[in-house]
Each structure stands twice: as C-alpha cells, then as structure tokens.
Amino acid sequence: MDDGRLTVGVEEEFLLVDPGTGEPLARNVEVARTAEEFGIDLQLELTRCQVEANTAVHTDIAALHRQLRESRRGIAICAQRNDARLLAVGIPPTVPHDFPVTDTPRYQRIAENFGMLAHEQGLSGCHVHVGIPDTETAIQVSNHLRPWLPQLLAMTANSAIYRGAETGFASWRSILWRRWPSAGPPPYFESARHYEAMVAMMLNSGSILDKQMVYWDVRPSVSFPTVEVRVSDIPATVEETALLAALVRAIVVMARKAVGAGQVAPPVAPGFTVTDMTAAAAARTGIDFDELQTAMAAKIAVGRVGSPE
C-alpha cells in the first residue's frame, strides 16, 4: 500500500439550536428523519440536541472536502425545516439546566449509570479515522501519535463560551470531556493484548459500560479497521475539518513508517505527564502557542521530543 494514499474518513458532531436564542433544541430525531428523506444518514448522539454525520471512506482530501461541504449544507437545510439551526461549535454558548438524553436503550443506560455526566453533555467533537490493517499496528501507531494530540486540539479549539460566559479556555469542551473515566490522552500500551486487558478491567470495574465508551483521544476504532483520533473540537468550517483530516493522515503515515522500521515509542512513567500538561496548555490557549510552546520546551528539556511524553 502507498502510505500517502491511506484511507481517511471523518465524523462530525453538530448542535441543534434555537435560531433566535441559540439555546439547544431537542430535535435530533426529527432532523434525522427529515435527513433520511434527502438520502442523508445521520447518527443520533447522546443528547437530543445533537446529530452526527459520517463521511464515506476517502483517499483524496479534495473529495473529502467536497463531501463535508455538501453534508453540512444538506443537514443545515434539514435542521431549518425543523425550526432549528445547525451549529458547528464544541459546546453550546447558551445552555438549559441539562440536556434531554436520546431515547435509545444504550443512551438511557449511560444516563442511568453516569447521571449528570450524561445530562450535562452537548459536547461536539470531530473524529478522524485513518485505515490501519490490524489492532496491533493501531496500538503502536497510537503510541507514536500521543505527542501530536495537544497540537491537533490547539488548532481546532472552538469552544470558548459556555453558559453565556467566557471560560478562559479556547477549548472548554476538552476540559468538560475529561470528566469521563476513559477520556483524555490514552495510557502507553505495549501491545494489543495490553490494550484489551485495560479495556476489560474498565468494563469489569463499571467505569465504562461497553467498548464504545473507550473515549481516549486516540484509539483503535471499535467499528472499523482504523486508528481514530478524537481529540478535536468540531471545527467551525469544512476547510478546517479537511485540513485536520489531512494532517492526521500525514502523522499516521509517519507513525506507520516508524513502526515498520522497528521504532517502538518509548514507554512512559504513570501519572501526570508532559503530554497531559501540553494538552492542558492547548485547551487553554488554542492557536495562541505561547503557553503551548512552553510546555513543548519541557519535552526538549527532558530529551523526549517525538516520544510519547
């Protein structure tokens, strides 16, 4: 396979809001039903104020960009027909007390087990999938991807306003998202077996209810033969989403070459790491890289640029 032509696909999560007030509207079922009439397949998210759109599998970023543009335009029309507006933002600027949970057995079970974590959602991200042949390769590639996660978050930060107030963070979504037990940068995994053992432990402890609740910023996809990068806010524009997909694929290409050359990402010590600190800086500053560069300088100081920590 030509690594420059690795397959890529994108999932975009959107908010449905009142056109006048900007408050979230619980109309994802209605919008998805209207989208069906237009031949658009929308996924229902945890809260009823959200929908998710998935692209086809692409090798050409220009074609991916065209589909993203057509998809957003079509979904926006479907939202409008249900007296809602489609909003590409990481969190709703104005929110109700809580968000009604979508009435599916799985989502209701999550709400029952995780309470206000589910009822205070409305968090919208963008997930990029890049084709990987097997779980073992995906795990090794993920280890190499970890140092890039803060930069990807910084360039897509799109959630500074929450409950009508400045949060002081460029990506408040990423801060709220970390409340989930399996969110944030993943641990270092020595192998696919190590990864599966950790997931099994989380399942047995009840910290997750199924494998789909492995919410780490990068993971082997549960549903597809891909590595899935999930760190980003939903970008405001399709151009930014297409750029994100292109960059993620390029990083995966480099990681695959490193893995193919036998370069194993070095193990890291447990606890709060330089990657965690850099991620916090990225969430706070977004593309204002002053604090982000300070955190990156810490990597240089310990001689670990390009390693997981």
Strand and helix map with partners:
Layout: E1 8-17, H1 28-37, E2 42-44, E3 50-54, H2 61-80, E4 85-87, H3 105-114, H4 116-119, E5 125-131, H5 135-145, H6 149-156, E6 161-162, E7 165-166, H7 172-177, H8 192-205, E8 218-220, E9 226-233, H9 238-260, H10 274-285, H11 290-301
Helix pairs in contact: 1-2, 2-9, 5-9, 6-10, 10-11
Write structural notes for this entry.
The chain is 42% helix and 14% strand. The chain is of the alpha+beta class and 309 residues long. Strand 8 and strand 9 form a beta hairpin.
Strand content: 5-15%
Give the C-alpha Rg: 19 Å
Q: How many helical elements?
A: 11
Mean pLDDT: 87
Q: What would you call the shape? A: globular
Q: Helical residue percent?
A: 40-55%
Largest sheet: 7 strands, antiparallel
Order of helices and strands: EHEEHEHHEHHEEHHEEHHH
Identify low-pLDDT runs.
298-309
Query: In angstroms, what separates the terminal alpha carbons?
Result: 30 Å
Would you count the extended β strands for me? 9
| Broad structural category | alpha+beta
Short account of what is shown:
The chain has helices at 28-37, 61-80, 105-114, 116-119, 135-145, 149-156, 172-177, 192-205, 238-260, 274-285, 290-301, and strands spanning 8-17, 42-44, 50-54, 85-87, 125-131, 161-162, 165-166, 218-220, 226-233. It is an alpha+beta fold.
Features:
alpha+beta, seven-stranded antiparallel beta sheet, 309 residues, disordered C terminus, two-stranded antiparallel sheet
